# Entry
Amino acid sequence: MIGQRDSLRYLQEKFYWLFTFFVFAILVLILRISYLQILNGQKYRFISDKNSLKEEITPGPRGQFLDREGKLLVDNRLELDLIYKRQRNVDPLPVLEKVSQLTGIKLAELKKDFDKEVRQKETFATVTLIRDLPRDIAAKVEAYKNDLEGVSVQTNIKRVYLLKENAAHVFGYTGLATKKDVGKIKYPGGLVNQNDVLGKYGIERSLDLSIRGREGTRYAVVDVHGRRLKKEEEGKILGDLAREVDAKVGPDVTLTIDADLQEAAQLTLKDFIGAVVALNPNTGEILAMHSQPGFDPTSLSLNKSEEWERVMKNEFGPLRNKVIQDHFSPGSTFKIFTALAGLQAGIINPNENVYCSGKYRLGNKIFHCDLKNGHGNVNLRQAIQKSCNVYFYTMASRMPSVNTLTDFAKHFGFGRAPGLGMENEALGLMPSPEWKKKALKQGWSQGETLLVSIGQSYTLTSPLQLGLAYSALVNGGKLFKPYLVSKIQNYDGKIIEQNSPKLIDHVEINPDHLRRVKEGLYDVVNEPTGTGYHTVRSSLVKIGGKSGTATVASFSEDALFKSCEARPLNRRSHAWFVGYAPEEKPEIVVVAFAMHACWGAVAAGPVVKAVIEKWYEKNKSRFLPVTKNPQAKPDLDFSTR
# Structure
């Protein structure tokens, strides 16, 4: 039939092309097999015998931290880690027992750290058994590697904080990503994985994205036991199969802090629980920041259990940065803003004398001065110099509302976050009748206005807020945003980010009012009856400042003037001192806070003096020497505020 012949002819043509395709495919396959078996057979047989081509990720070191003069503060160094690759249905206990025998580390400690990391990581993720392994122990582990299935020694980058506990709260610490981090935090290179090191606290955390390095890749050939082959054998196998990508270090960070001022702050704060912050009042730069008790950021970055236990057992919160995260009543350091608010409102006449008998009566309630028998007649300058409570009670009683004071103080940064950009900055509190009614469902009393005027009642501030407020005061009314990072610079010298002063508020201060207040602040340190005369006065540089002793409990009249040091620790007053220099044109403001240390001038004053004198020693070539200002004598009067 004609139709059948046409169909057969059509199928024969299709079969020809199909046959041609199969012949071509078989020829290509034969050529490929010949290439692999004949030309490169020996090479791939060698790879097969040796068993494994391993990809190794080389971490990109994080950028270094430098102080304002280029001194290295945080570095990266190589460490050896002992890691364990978990497998399904394999009990890790026998491996941990062998590791314990080889390293001398107690099995209980190994298991505790192992279980802790397992809880933080995804199922079957690699676990670090020991961080920063000594080289002799690492060599011993390598020698017995055949008996330690899944265990290997790995090279990593260790973050080293050269100042140790000093400035620990500035730097923070790093740590491996946890389950919560993996796959959720995104970087330019992709999502965070279980082996990534992240900034956990401080500027390590706030600058994490900016200072991360770029990972590199290298390839190694290992045998069936996971041992790396010799270089010549590895070279035969790898050839051009795998191209290595070099790791790149992250950008370096130059901070505004001065390492020498940091050291002076730490040495003089000594065993006190407290904080120190130093600022440039004309820019907002933080020159020093130290909080005690602290922690060793290198040990926390290595996840050392003993350091974590020490930190967690300390009731005074070593992980809290008391410079920015805690707030306290400022005590008499706040009187300066009461004085300035009263002058600006026309309530205070600086030449008016107020008689201080040691007591101030408001209705049936008695408010006491810090000196039991009073200061006699005092004007504004003398009230600041001697820290007379009665004078400020009198002036506060003339104010139409506490808002006259608190609204004015808010322009100096009280009651709002400083904006440093670090975690959990304390807001502080500038109380008002409206706030109390809303927060406590209570009315405001005139007595509370008196207490606010001397920095008590509900008034709260952090050391950084107080330092910024005094900076704005002594520079003529300019409130600057604080900052710690001067610049971020790439490894090739290119500046990625550079910070400069940012004005966030401006208070119009009458120059004569400012002069009056600063005269009192100068007398605090430089007049024999000033509260800081014996502990802060310097033979090197003219210092102005104010002491503050903030009570933390109520006492009867009989108990009020008894020894503070004899009270239980939690009922002792907090100690403050704020100082600045040079007195004529200030370039540094220092705030020292000592928790439950009783007397501001005695406990906190010497810290301020030490930091300012260290600053002066580094800058003295710009100033004329101080004359007629002999070295201070030991303070014998512990009753001053």
About this structure: Residues 2-39 form the longest helix (38 residues). Residues 7 and 13 are 10 Å apart (CA to CA). The mean pLDDT is 86. The longest strand covers residues 72-84.
